[in-house]
Amino acid sequence: MSRVLAYTSPARGHLYPLVPTLLELAGRGHDVCVRTLPSEVDRMRSLGFDARAIDDRVSAIELADWKAKGARAALVASATAFAERSQFDAPDLEGAIAEVRPDAVIVDTNSWGAQAAAEAWGGPWASLLPYPVPLSSVDAPPFGLGLPPARGVVGRVRDRAIRPIVMGTVARATLPRYNVVRSRYGLRPFAGADELYLAPPLTLYLTAEPFEYPRRDWPTSFALIGPCDWDPPEEDPEWLASVDRPLVLVTTSSEYQGDEKLVRSALEAMAREDLFVVATVPSADPTAFSVPGNARVEKYLPHARLLKRAACAVTHGGMGATQKALAHGVPVVAVPFGRDQFEVARRVEVAGAGVRLTAPRATPERLRDAVRVAMSRRAGAERIAASFAAAGGPSAAADRLEALISLPA
Fold this sequence. Notes:
single chain; alpha/beta; Rossmann fold; 2 domains; seven-stranded parallel beta sheet; globular
């Protein structure tokens, strides 16, 4: 069988969705090697993978998009971090390839330099894309602002006008730096942001229509396989068995972005409701909140177990947390703070699977009302859950990777 090397950015939100596919590959007899954030190396080894940490210099470059003012500035800040990391993750993957001698490589889409190293390597490689794709399309609105799909001539004019303003700004600010790395590997420079997503021979896109906007112009390299959920194996907390009310899960980002106020608003909003709130704050201090009697605030809990009992999920609009809730048929209130979250929140609204609420408007009163409305939209969430299940998940991803490996050189 083949040896597969996977390389991720320093984010659990990009590693965990990859794990089910790696487990599927291992179950089929493939040898799996992983290079990922240092804190997850031992956990990956416990799954049977040959796991090692990525270069510390990659992890040292943190996302600072939460400091930016406005969606466009936040996108530029995120992409700038990816471009800065590329000078280190490119040689990091190059060294791993020389050591592991893989038959195929999977690269996190945010590891720009590693993608360049994989392209220059010349063997079969794929990109893992766990957030809404910024790729231009005649059927989808420009990425970044969370705009609804266009309607009629006016909408199409809007899209043509805005697309170069948003992603064009990102490209001008970051691609010159990234192209320096590409030139070191003898690769042609990228002229626009679309090329980042068209270069991989295969993109494992972790979503499915109709949650993702249906498009007539999907590249043949894209495989929409649906979200691939994975939680570290842990026992249920003892207190969970005593919860006898409908549960509301509240999530915040695993990479800091100043979204703690969503938890504070949710705790106040539900304090007198016949609900039980469980909030997870992986990038904040759980002891920093005033917690009412019908709530818990935890650093981390496996979401899947909570979602089996949830009536609603209040998310920060992260693709992973939001799609995980929908995959369980749980309606969502999406409150975006930045990054791709405006796009995710709009998709929740358009799909009829919950409610979109902007962060400045997420007062306790409005959030309470949004939760009530979202809970009435379970049918929409269940429709999305069915489409996710039909997309094939890890099995479909492994099939596409095996087909890629078997292609003649």
